[in-house]
């Protein structure tokens, strides 16, 4: 069969489509198109340039982000729900942040010579703020709530929860919403802790959710927990993985649960979605998460048996239970 280079041209087109979406979000185009709107009405609201706006809307139309009926432009149902600032499910800001977070433009310099340029640190404070709404919109919160309701049956019991590297604290907030007599600790670095506190206070839960500042690799994390959440943190564990998992197990009560959310692989052939999103992180010094087999072995040593594998929004997760000593 004759080989053709078409896929590369397709990639350029996809890249343009992505660029178009980012520019449209920056221009806030979708917030003006919740209802069928003529070009003249759009220009009256935005004061944008007539000719260029016409081309830009044509491009959005060609990609299926908006629709056109006679002389009016309008969001698709999906764009109205997620890309218009008038919607409670708006995630435009999160999309723009994620683009910046994982952007690999000019990363080639560091591939050629790792000593070139500064390490681009991941901005976890901004991530904690941005991820808040996204967690509700992408189904993470609904999936989490469904799982905890299956794990914990007594709505009025005082369960104790630890959210390690909890960022926004949303999962702790949701736990307390479901089990109002419970208490939770969000364990975070000092940089992010102030954001966690701000979000917890905004939800008026500061008397139920406490923020512990520290480094989970070296500091004590407390004990007596019925649930420990370890979501997206395994790339930041610097200590021996078995020691870390035993530290989590020691902090749980007997039959307590460990919820892990993250991607683990058997070797360095990462899945496309993972490596493309985290390439910038790895190239800037983030260490790979432990291998699946290492996690499995450490869990056995720590008496944490697999209860089930779950899906939490866009991510994979698993629930473990702390068994008694054999
Ligand atoms: C990828 S984010 C995950 C945030 C949140 N758990 C989630 O799933 O959305 C990793 C979080 O771990 C925190 N973190 C990283 N290293 C840490 C450490 N050594 N001690 C405490 N927190 C840490 C970061 O500040 C960040 O908020």
TrEMBL record:
One of its GO terms (molecular function) is O-methyltransferase activity. InterPro entries: COMT_C, SAM-dependent_MTases_sf, WH-like_DNA-bd_sf. CDD domains: AdoMet_MTases. It holds the Pfam family Methyltransf_2. It comes from the Bacteria. Residues 160-269 form the O-methyltransferase C-terminal domain. This is O-methyltransferase C-terminal domain-containing protein. The lineage of its organism: Bacteria, Bacillati, Bacillota, Clostridia, Lachnospirales.
């Amino acid at each position: 069969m004759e080989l053709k280079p078409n896929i590369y041209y397709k990639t350029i087109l996809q890249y343009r489509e992505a660029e178009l979406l980012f520019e449209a979000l920056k221009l806030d185009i979708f917030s003006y198109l919740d209802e069928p709107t003529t070009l003249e009405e759009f220009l009256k609201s935005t004061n944008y340039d007539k000719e260029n706006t016409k081309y830009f809307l044509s491009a959005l139309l060609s990609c299926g982000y908006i629709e056109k009926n006679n002389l009016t432009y309008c969001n698709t149902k999906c764009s109205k729900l997620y890309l218009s600032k008038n919607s409670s499910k708006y995630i435009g800001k999160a999309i723009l942040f994620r683009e910046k977070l994982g952007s690999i433009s000019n990363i080639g310099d560091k591939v050629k010579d790792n000593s070139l340029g500064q390490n681009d640190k991941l901005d976890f404070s901004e991530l904690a703020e941005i991820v808040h709404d996204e967690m509700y919109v992408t189904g993470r919160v609904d999936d989490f709530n469904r799982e905890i309701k299956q794990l914990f049956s007594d709505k009025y019991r005082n369960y104790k929860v630890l959210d390690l590297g909890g960022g926004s604290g949303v999962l702790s907030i949701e736990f307390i919403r479901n089990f109002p007599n419970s208490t939770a600790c969000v364990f975070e670095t000092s940089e992010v802790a102030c954001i966690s506190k701000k979000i917890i206070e905004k939800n008026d839960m500061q008397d139920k959710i406490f923020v512990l500042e520290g480094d989970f690799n070296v500091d004590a994390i407390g004990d007596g927990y019925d649930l420990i959440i370890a979501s997206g943190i395994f790339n930041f564990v610097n200590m021996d993985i078995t020691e870390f998992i035993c530290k989590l197990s020691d902090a749980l009560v007997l039959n307590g649960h460990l919820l892990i959310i993250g991607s683990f692989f058997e070797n360095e052939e990462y899945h496309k979605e993972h490596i493309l999103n985290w390439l910038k992180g790895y190239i800037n010094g983030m260490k790979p998460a432990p291998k699946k087999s290492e996690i499995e072995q450490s869990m056995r040593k720590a008496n944490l048996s697999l209860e089930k594998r779950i899906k939490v929004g866009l991510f994979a997760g698993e629930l473990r239970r702390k068994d008694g000593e054999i």
